[in-house]
Amino acid sequence: MNASTAYRRAAVIGGGVIGISWTGLFLAHGLDVVVSDPRPDAEEQVRAGLEEITPALAELGLPTADLTARLRFEPDLAEAVADADVVQENGPERLEAKREIWRTVEQAAPDHALLATSTSGIPATAIAEALRAPERLVVGHPFNPPHLVPLVEIVPGEKTSARTLAQAGDFYTALGKKPQILRKEVPGFVANRLQSALFRECVHLVAEGVVTEAELDAIVTDSIGLRWAVAGPFRTFHLGGGPGGLPHFLRHLGPAMEASWTGLGTPSLDEATVALLTAQAREAFAEEPVPELAARRDRAQIALMRALAASSPEPADKAAA
Amino acid sequence: MNASTAYRRAAVIGGGVIGISWTGLFLAHGLDVVVSDPRPDAEEQVRAGLEEITPALAELGLPTADLTARLRFEPDLAEAVADADVVQENGPERLEAKREIWRTVEQAAPDHALLATSTSGIPATAIAEALRAPERLVVGHPFNPPHLVPLVEIVPGEKTSARTLAQAGDFYTALGKKPQILRKEVPGFVANRLQSALFRECVHLVAEGVVTEAELDAIVTDSIGLRWAVAGPFRTFHLGGGPGGLPHFLRHLGPAMEASWTGLGTPSLDEATVALLTAQAREAFAEEPVPELAARRDRAQIALMRALAASSPEPADKAAA
Prior knowledge:
Two copies of one chain form a homodimer.
Chain A: H1 3-6, E1 9-13, H2 17-28, E2 32-36, H3 42-59, E3 71-73, H4 77-81, E4 86-89, H5 95-108, E5 114-117, H6 124-128, E6 137-142, E7 151-156, H7 162-174, E8 178-181, H8 191-207, H9 213-221, H10 224-230, H11 233-240, H12 245-262, H13 271-285, H14 290-311
Parallel strand pairs in A: 1-2, 1-4, 2-3, 4-5, 5-6, 7-8
Antiparallel strand pairs in A: 6-7
């Protein structure tokens, strides 16, 4: 399927960082986009944000000439979604705010519209309690920024229909994303839980004085980061287990792995720890403003994505939804 | 400095997978290498292993013509290290075996030789108790395979001298590696602890049926893996915190991060879990033998390393030893 035919008109609710990134991606894929945000300076903010990400969209190989020609702004939510094929909501991360938005959207949007929330923390089940047709709502959680990072976690609520999940998968795939449909609703979904697990040990090691933040970052980029960009943790251990692969690894090194878990740190982000982490961050990252560092990181990441696409480490994307 | 002048003669103790990889790297950087391994088929194994990794060495841009011209084999340990400038030990991961090896090496090797063990699990402090000059021994722990992954963790024992640490840093840097000197001896060092922390949550999510192994791997390669290949966890959160960077992130999202830690899984690798992980591995990775999958992964990783080198995400490697 083709996003520009099946989903021609998108409504983006909320013009913050995530909303801007989705808007840029949708526009670059030829969709008409209505942004709805009640803030008086929303249009100005969104246009400025789009200008900022346009170079990255271009580096990704997307057409960016007249990017905003099919963009409009409509503060009234019901008006904004009235003829949408897809609604991507990026409102405040508060349950009541989400419910109120979605009650309005459900009433005003066409029956065929795909209804997706970018929430990183509120279960679709809880939001959908406010809806007449809870089977229509799904979490489409991007890994920030959505225009750049391939992953979109599609997370069903208890009542989300298989049809909605399939539609969401088709939609994000057509945008060049790599969606994954989770089999269960779980707090933090998958990517953020993994990030949280790793970060806990990072905080422990820095708090214990084993390494500085900058040293730890270098260790990650020079080892596991490189590995996991090419092959995930299971595949990595499969390839590290010799000809017997992961089964061999689990049988022979599983006990040592399990034992290592009991030795992992359980730090807290108390005042002293936050002060230490803050001081090290100021030293490690002071040399350049965040936006410039981020732009350089993003350029490097695009170069990496291109290299990966050209060398295709996997025979076929078996895991894709 | 230049490895081929300061460290011209290397002794590699143990001709297993790690020993072979170090041997290939040393040879490709112009060192004379003596491999010492008491197994009768050691020479055959090492030569076969070197042939297997030669294409990767070539793709890394290293000279591989006549790679084995400066390679010899000497089963007798004392003979093997007699005129070594550096000894890299990859013997059995048992304390007594390491102590016996190093007692012999210390007596037989020149006084100026750098003495490094590849151990991933035994503290230099414990091994060095067998030595007259414990300040000379250091852990030089590669992330497998050493000829490919940039990281080498240099881990001091309690008595390792600053001079030894500096020499180890110079040696691995001259081989094109990215060594990191840890500030403290800690079980599992840094990279394996981080890997263990992430893998624990991976096992939890698969055991709970949230995702399959293949789906989890795809989530990682399409999000955090990509990120961490370019910027480590602290830098990633620094860039995710807006203009206020990591300090802002810690102040505003620290409590939510800390709360998320309490919700992480604490799985065990019991029989049922190992059976589930094994069954999924057979399904996910059955299509191709491990060596072919590994070779493809390695090619992809080399492509990625080249792309990163060309785009240089960081202004200077501040964290390097």
